[in-house]
Amino acid sequence: MRSKLMLLAAIVLLVLTACGQDKAEDPITLKDQNSNEVTFPQDKPALFFFITTYT
Length: 55
What we know:
Layout: H1 2-18, E1 28-31, E2 37-40
Antiparallel strand pairs: 1-2
Signal peptide: 1-24
Keywords: Signal
């Protein structure tokens, strides 16, 4: 039963990734901790991390 569920999840994941776009149309702009806007380039892959704190 578990192998059938894993196979179904893999098929759904494959279909969802096939339906996605190759590239984002609009630039991605986020705000940093100082409220400065940071824009990520679209011409090459970028890796960014989110660090959150709870008060």
